[in-house]
């Protein structure tokens, strides 16, 4: 991120709501930075170049929720663990069954607690790999090692399942994969699972290992590649029962056109769980992608009391919330590629 930006540690969730600004420190998991909000405006519609009737896919919330439960049933899934690998195999099979070409993108990271090297893998499922107009839909699939946001210190070494923070984005990508064969748009679509988003203990560790690796590879492959991604989304924490998705600040800064298209689609569909309002600034996997030149919006509801606690469980999540996001995302995909500028 650029040096002009100052990051804040939000002491607690009410701090987030009241826009308290502290500086310098990293909270955990996803970091937040509350911008001098006055300078930032939500982006609001009617300039979307592509119009016409929206065609959301018939996303099945019950099925998406079952995927979320299946993923959580594997247990905690931190980067480099056998459980993480099992999840990856499950998703690979599912992607293949739906006609995607699946590739592993391995890399090595270091566990900051044990100092051991960990083999990590981003999973890339490509829909129509021959197409040169491409979109990237992504989610992280590792879970934080411990629920270190628990108020009771004794629980901070407890079991962290990451139903919303981890499983929800993956489950929604799995459900979207079911609909790709029926879509009519001409995008090539890559569904990417990032590893190592949060192999972090308290404030010990580096975030976004997987998306950083992916971004580095993307830049390194620039010469051979015949195309660049035209847009990307990160789906993170999309299953809260009480879902409300505002416009994340880095997305507004880096990818305003995508934010406008997504929120316009939601508005046209009468989807009130998307709100045209400036939300918090969240450090997430969209930062490395944007910095590599891929315009990326983070679709996230950061207002989730169970965040990084033992309570981030399937019972806090809703298939209907995931379906709402899935319908908006697929309606946006179905707009198809805009005409190429000469
Ligand atoms: Zn997290």
Write up what this structure looks like.
The relative contact order is 0.20. With 342 residues, the chain is α/β, with parallel strands linked by helices. The chain is globular, with a radius of gyration of 19 Å. It has a single domain, classed as Zn peptidases (Aminopeptidase, 3-Layer(aba) Sandwich). A six-stranded mixed β-sheet has the order 2-3-5-4-6-10, with helices on both faces. A two-stranded antiparallel ribbon has the order 1-9. Strands 7-8 form a two-stranded parallel sheet. α4 links the parallel β4 and β5 (188-194). 30% of the residues lie in helices and 18% in strands. The protein binds zinc ion. Zinc ion (ZN) binds at residues 29-30, 144, 165, 198, 308.
In short:
This protein is of the alpha/beta class. The chain has 9 helices and 10 strands. The strands form 3 sheets. A 6-stranded mixed beta sheet has the order 2-3-5-4-6-10, with helices on both faces. A two-stranded antiparallel sheet has the order 1-9. The chain has a two-stranded parallel sheet with strand order 7-8.
| CATH topology tier name | Aminopeptidase
Question: Outline, from the CA principal axes?
Answer: globular
CATH architecture verdict: 3-Layer(aba) Sandwich
Counting DSSP E segments of at least 2 residues, the number of strands comes to 10
* Main sheet overview: 6 strands, mixed
* Domain module tally: 1
Count of discrete alpha- or pi-helical segments spanning 4 or more residues: 9
Low-pLDDT ranges: 1-29, 33-38
User: Which ions and ligands are bound to the chains?
Assistant: zinc ion
Mean pLDDT, nearest integer? 89
Strand order of the largest sheet: 2-3-5-4-6-10
Task: Give the structural class.
Answer: alpha/beta
* Intertermini distance: 32 Å
Output the CATH homologous superfamily. Answer: Zn peptidases
Helix fraction by DSSP (H/I, runs of at least 4):
25-40%
Output the helix-strand order.
Answer: HEHHEEEHEHEEHHEEHEH
Provide the CATH top-level class: Alpha Beta
């Amino acid at each position: 991120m650029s040096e002009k930006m100052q990051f804040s540690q939000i002491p607690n969730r009410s701090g987030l709501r009241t826009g308290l600004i502290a500086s310098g420190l990293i909270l955990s998991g996803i970091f937040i930075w509350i911008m001098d909000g006055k300078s930032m405006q939500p982006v609001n519609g009617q300039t979307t170049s592509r119009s016409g009737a929206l065609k959301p896919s018939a996303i099945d919330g019950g099925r998406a929720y079952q995927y979320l439960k299946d993923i959580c049933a594997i247990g905690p899934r931190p980067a480099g663990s056998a459980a993480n690998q099992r999840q990856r195999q499950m998703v690979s099979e599912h992607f293949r069954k739906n006609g995607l070409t699946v590739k592993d993108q391995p890399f090595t990271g270091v566990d900051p607690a044990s100092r051991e090297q960990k083999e990590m893998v981003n999973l890339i499922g490509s829909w129509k790999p021959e197409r040169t107009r491409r979109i990237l839909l992504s989610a992280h699939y590792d879970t934080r090692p411990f629920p270190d946001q628990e108020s009771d210190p004794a629980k901070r070494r407890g079991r962290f399942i990451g139903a919303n923070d981890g499983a929800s984005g993956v489950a929604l990508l799995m459900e979207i994969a079911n609909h790709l064969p029926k879509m009519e748009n001409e995008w090539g679509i890559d569904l990417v699972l990032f590893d190592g988003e949060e192999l972090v203990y308290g404030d010990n560790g580096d975030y976004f290992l997987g998306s950083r690796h992916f971004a580095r590879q993307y830049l390194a492959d620039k010469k051979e590649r015949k195309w660049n991604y035209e847009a990307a989304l990160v789906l993170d924490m999309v299953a809260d029962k009480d879902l409300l998705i505002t416009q994340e600040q880095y997305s507004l800064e880096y990818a305003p056109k995508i934010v406008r298209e997504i929120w316009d689609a939601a508005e046209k569909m009468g989807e009130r769980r998307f709100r045209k309002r400036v939300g918090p600034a969240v450090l997430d996997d969209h930062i490395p992608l944007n910095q590599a030149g891929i315009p990326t919006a983070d679709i996230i509801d950061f207002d989730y009391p169970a965040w990084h606690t033992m309570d981030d469980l399937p019972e806090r999540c809703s298939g209907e919330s995931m379906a709402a996001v899935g319908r908006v995302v697929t309606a946006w995909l179905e707009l198809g590629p805009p005409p190429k500028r000469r």
